[in-house]
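Narrative summary of target 7.
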Amino acid sequence: MSDPIVLTTLNARYMHCAFGLRYLYANLGKLRAQAQIREFTIQQRAIDIVEQLLEPQPRIIGFSIYIWNVTQTTEVIALLKQVSPQTRVIVGGPEVSFADDLPALAELADYLVSGPGETSFRELCDDLLKDRPITSRMITGKTTALDELELPYAYYDDEDIRNRLIYVEASRGCPFRCEFCLSSLDRTARPFELARFLSAMDELYRRGARNFKFIDRSFNLKVSAGIAILEFFLERIDKDLYLHFEVVPDHLPQKLKQVLTRFPAATLQLEIGVQTFDPVIQQTISRRQNNELTRTNLHWLRENTGAHIHADLIFGLPGDTLENFARSFDQLVSLGPHEIQLGILKRLRGAPLNRHNNTYEMRYNPAAPYNLLSTRDIDFVTLQRVNRCARFWDLIGNSGRFKNLLPLILAEQPFANLLELSDYLYQLAGSTWKISLRRLFSLLYVALGGPMQRPPAQLRELLEADFRLSGEKGRPAFEDQRLDVERRTGTANKRQRQHDRAGARESSL
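Modeled conformation, tokenized:
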């Protein structure tokens, strides 16, 4: 059976669902009966994706384009146009929403929809299927009142509910103007009608959904609505329920705090975008944040709730330096979040932050994900070091596997220690990837016990305690790993030369 319209995207992982595609599908009106959704991942081969996309013999294929899939989607569309040039390709999403800042992929597409697409995509498909003339290939998306939109939640299928993240939104937009974020282009946050939204959540819950990821940029902005949603889930609490919210860090009124304390441990994840504690940088990027309240609230959440606290920092904002970022990191570590996402600034097309590119000499990778390479105040080598540091921090700090060792690493100068450790680990391993857990334990013993001069007996005790908790069998071969590393890196000969020189000095005395 053929369907004239296929909606598709390449997700970063299978567990992610394409929320935007389901909104487009829900709002196709009469065309919905002639459409289907097909999702892939960026790990799949382009030629296999094209074969599956063309299977229903579509006249129109709509692609959702993001920073994480633009490279792979470009290859897919290029192949698609080679084998089926008559198929009309429509692209939309953040990567193709700014006419003066488009990726190369835009040249391969027949039409581009910028901004919200629920109404504009349907109208464009209707025109194409009825062979109506279309005067422009760049279509400006129409903003539709939220109460006029069909909600997408019925189009999560049973497989989605069993095995994938379920994305939901109680509001759209954001009233803040943080320039690194595309939500800063919105004038305000617009809530969905609460009773209608909760009815949709109830239906998802009754179908078996337990993993809800709210994509609202500021879930706790309207406290009464936030409390109503939390109370809704408290009434349905069970051992499998897991809720993810993005929270404004300096806005936690007492009523909201009281509700948060009622959730059992491991039920809530609160994502808190700190980004920087530097007030000058905050002013430069139009970020309003009360740093004292942020610190107070983070500490309160950690001490008084069972929520998993995920805090974000960004390295490389205009005016940032390595020393300045270290101060923000050290402050955040002292507040004890369970995870710190150490992110490198990326260039988002259309983001207001781009106005600083010349003044601060911001240089970005021309290939997605457009990561920062250098600035006026941070050179390329330093960016590379922090990139590696972020990766090792994920393996050591964010993994939760080194609860006994981590206080030793983060004592006194957390970021300075972490960066030094990262440098040594990279020197020893030659990579930040494909490091087995057992090898990581041994590498940490070598780096901390050798160049960083931590007491070997203490290290063994802490690492062995963490190793037992990891579930790995046996014990890490600390001494064997040290000798192996020394052979490969030449540090054994260096150590022998140091020993010989020390002996010679003693003889001369």
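The chain has 18 helices and 16 strands.
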